[in-house]
Amino acid sequence: MEPVLVSLEAGVLCVTLNRPEKLNAFNPAVHQGLAAAMTRAETDGAIRCLLVSGAGRGFCAGQDLSERDMKAASIDLGAGLETWYNPLVKRMRALPKPIVCAVNGVAAGAGANFALACDIVLAARSASFIQAFVKIGLVPDCGGSYFLPRLAGTQRAMALAMTGERLSAEDAERWGLIWKCVDDAQLGKEAEKLARQLASGPTRSLGLIKQAMYSSAHNDLSTQLDLERDLQREIGKGEDYREGVAAFLEKRKPEFKGR
Ligand code: T3D
User: Fold this and answer.
1) For residue 258, what is the enclosing H or E element?
2) SS3 of 103, please?
3) % helix / strand / coil in the chain, to the nearest 5?
4) End-to-end CA distance of the chain
5) Which of 40, 77, 92, 173 shows the smallest number of beta carbons within 10 Å?
6) pLDDT tens digit string along 29-47?
């Protein structure tokens, strides 16, 4: 069985974690599959949006705990972060295309933070998010200590990380961790609809929106205003802007080409 399923339809690259018997826990094969999908997304102009999900009843249970050699004299967990998790999160954030995540079930440990690294997160009502690290004596990784305080505030981030308590999809929406929680039966349809809408949108504009939003986490207002000016200057030279304005004036739907 392929550990990561990948298919391209209507400009959407669907990336499905596919180890359902282990709740799609990360192992080297999953990481390799994700790295290959990222390379494809970065280099193929036909791909205008990514849609990430999990096979079976879980989204992702984080690192596969059964594959660690716990008898080894010393264990370097930093190595796995350096080789796999950190480059993955950096590539996701730098990708100038939107990444939609459909959290279909439990998202634990690095699995929860992998979801939060995506640009727009939908979750099934029965899904949940667990900062499981503390339960095994670790600290949040895969960007969790960056995303959580920014999305939910320091207090909630701290309590989630220190208790490892399960957060329901409804509370995750209420807390601003995710975009929307939808009925389980609607998740696939809703996520696909959103991904297709984005894939037929002005791709370069979406990429720059992503850059602007994420830059604001570390910019002051003046720097951010300068960035907006530069991005607007750049995107105003694109074909999609002309098409957008023409469509508005002609009272028709725009046909964006992603240029
Ligand atoms: O090591 C490093 O590289 C450092 C990096 C760490 C990053 C991390 O992600 S650390 C956190 C790792 N993840 C966890 O600690 C979560 C472990 N899993 C759970 O706590 C629970 O499975 C869940 C709360 C996620 C779901 O519970 P439940 O009751 O719905 O399912 P289950 O019965 O526990 O799991 C179903 C099967 O998946 C089960 O296998 P079995 O008994 O049916 O053969 C279980 O062992 C397996 N499974 C679930 N999570 C993992 C896993 N197998 C390996 N690794 C897992 N993380």
Assistant:
1) none
2) strand
3) 50, 15, 30
4) 37
5) 77
6) 999 999 999 999 999 999 9
Q: Going by CA atoms, what residue is nearest to atom 5 of ligand 1?
A: 63
Average pLDDT over residues 170-182: 98
Average pLDDT of span 112-126: 98
Report the separation in Å between the CA atom of 120 and the middle of ligand 1, taken as the mean of its atom positions: 25
Which tens digit of pLDDT belongs to each residue from 52-87? Answer: 999 999 999 999 999 988 988 889 999 999 999 999
Q: How far apart are CA 174 and CA 215, in angstroms?
A: 24
Tell me, in angstroms, the distance from the centre of ligand 1 to residue 61's CA.
5
**Cα radius of gyration rounded to whole Å, the chain:** 19
* Both structure tokens of 158: 């701290």
> Which of the listed residues 59, 65, 75, 89 should we mutate to test ligand 1's pocket, taking the one with most ligand atoms within 8 A of CB?
65
Find out whether 34 and 28 touch, Cβ atoms under 8 Å.
Answer: no
> pLDDT (tens digit, 9 = 90+) per residue, 139-153?
999 999 999 999 999
**Of ligand 1's atoms, which has the minimum distance to the CA of residue 110?**
9
Ligand 1 atom closest to 65 (CA) = 55
Instruction: Please indicate whether residue 140, judged by its CB atom, sits closer than 6 Å to ligand 1.
Output: no
Contacts of 254 (CB under 8 A, 6+ apart): 202, 240, 243, 244, 246, 247, 248
Task: Please state, as a whole number, how many other Cβ atoms lie within 10 Å of the Cβ of residue 87.
Answer: 15
Listing from the earlier edge strand, what are the strands of the sheet with 58-60?
58-60, 106-108, 128-130, 166-168
d(CA 62, ligand 1 centre) in Å: 7
